[in-house]
Amino acid sequence: MNPFRLFSRPKKVRKQVYELTRADLETSAVWEFCLDEEGESGQDEATVKPRADVTKISDLDGSCIAKTEFTFADGKRAFGYVSAASEETLPAIQPVIVTPQGQVMFWYGIVPPDEKWVAESLGRLSSVSERPFPIRYSCLVPTDDIPLNGELEGFYHYNRSREIQVIKR
């Protein structure tokens, strides 16, 4: 055994939120944004770190995502995450499903997804369920605030009047 290993620091785990996998969410149900580390090489506003020590979202001061269970119309399940927020609106919690082929976003802000992106997302969802919608979701990490759960009917974005629109397929 290397005697210096006793004094070495554990490896610092940092990932981009859009690269998280199901295995990452199994390792830690909560991932905190590293906003205080943005100036470090290779890190930006999408960099997250695991917070396996956190058992309740409301215990964190910073911004984070939390493991969420998604149930498809046919009863099949998948996992992903929602952003911790003080309100349960799509723009605030931005649900994301993690599939073996990659992540599927449901909130697109002011820029609606194009047809190619919708088709790719539906392809990823079909690896889990041939009939995904409606998709129910429920955050698996407790919070003192409102429960983070709801239902998705498609892919959402704001229109020019800042009203939420849904693209159904």
From TrEMBL:
Organismal lineage: Bacteria, Pseudomonadati, Verrucomicrobiota, Opitutia, Opitutales
Taxonomic superkingdom: Bacteria
Protein name in the entry: Uncharacterized protein
Biological source species: Termitidicoccus mucosus
